[in-house]
Design a protein that fits this description.
With 90 residues, the chain is mainly α. It has one domain (3-86). The chain has helices at residues 3-24, 31-52, 69-86; strands spanning 59-62, 65-68. α1 (3-24) packs across α2 (31-52). The radius of gyration is 13 Å and the shape is flat. The protein starts with a helix and ends with a helix.
């Protein structure tokens, strides 16, 4: 994986994480938090789809690695909702 492919992967994860935050209606942090949420959402969403036997809907292949766009958004929504319930609201 080249440096440009790595930056592209970070950009896609950031967009997926910020879409997940927008859908959940609870946002904390900035760009780095969105990138982390995108990757956590991809792990959680892929695991959830495997457990439920659901197909992979929209994958992007970057440098030989696949990134699940839809499952990343769904997983980040679930993760943001769980974090929102566990933390105190100001």
């Amino acid at each position: 994986m080249t440096f440009l492919e790595f930056l592209l992967l970070l950009l896609i994860a950031g967009v997926c994480g910020s879409i997940g935050q927008a859908i959940a209606g609870y946002s904390r942090g900035g760009c780095v938090v969105s990138i982390v949420l995108g990757f956590i959402g991809a792990l959680l969403g892929t695991w959830l789809s495997g457990q439920l036997g659901l197909p992979e809907l929209f994958n992007v292949n970057i440098g030989g690695n696949t990134f699940p766009i839809i499952w990343s958004i769904i997983g980040s929504v679930i993760f943001v909702v769980i974090v929102g319930f566990l933390t105190k609201k100001k």
